[in-house]
Amino acid sequence: MDFLTTFLLLIAGAGGGVAAANMLRKRTGVTDVRHESTLLLERIEKVFKVVMAEGYFSEIYNYQDQKKILYLLNDPKKAMVIAKSKVLVGFDFAKVRFQAPDPNDRMLVIESFPEPEVLSIDTDYRFYDIQAGILNHFNGADYTQILSEAKQVMNERAMQSDLPKIANNQIQYMMFQLASSMGWQLQLPEADQRRLDALRAEAERSDQPLKAILPSGNDPASSQS
C-alpha cells in the first residue's frame, strides 16, 4: 500500500468518525454550550445609605414600535415583558445636615434631611409574545431600551406607593430611639417635627406607644442597613 492510499484512508476514516459523532450527538440531544464572562471592578465607593422599607412589585410592560415600509405600510414589532421586582427605599445619610449648638444641652438639631429615594431595584425579567415585523426586527439596542424603560416605570410606581411614607416613619422612629438611648434630644426640620408631634399626639390619645401607630411592617428590628 503506497503513501497516497494510506493518506486517503486516514482522511476518510477521520471524516467518517466526525459524521458518526455528529449523528450520535443529534440522536442523544446533547449540545455543547459554553459560557464565558469577564468581571471588571470599575470602582468602590464608601456610602452611608440606610434601607427603611422594601416592596415587591409585578409589572406587565408592553412595548410596540411602528415602522413604515416605503412610507406606506406599517411594519410593527412588539413584545410583552413581565417583571417581578424587589425595591428598596431608604435614605442617603451623606445628605443630612445637622448641628449641636450647645453640646452641654445634648440637643442635636437636624437642619436638613433628605427625601426617601429608591436605593436599588432587583428585577427578574421575562419576555413573552415577541413579534418582529417583516423588516422591523429586534436588535440588542431594542432589548436594552425595553429593560431601561421597564425599570424606570418600576421606579415611578415604587415612589407613588406607600414605601416613601413607611420609610419616613421608620427613620424618624429609629433616630428618636437612638438619640433617646444616648441621652440626647433630637429636633427635626419644622415640617418633619410637626408630623412627628401629630403622631405622638395620636399615640397619646389612643394610649398606645408611638411604634404601634406606625404603618404595619415598620418594626425597625426588621429593617436593613
UniProtKB/TrEMBL annotation:
<feature type="region of interest" description="Disordered">
    <location>
        <begin position="202"/>
        <end position="225"/>
    </location>
</feature>
<dbReference type="InterPro" id="IPR025324">
    <property type="entry name" value="DUF4230"/>
</dbReference>
<protein>
    <submittedName>
        <fullName>DUF4230 domain-containing protein</fullName>
    </submittedName>
</protein>
<dbReference type="Pfam" id="PF14014">
    <property type="entry name" value="DUF4230"/>
</dbReference>
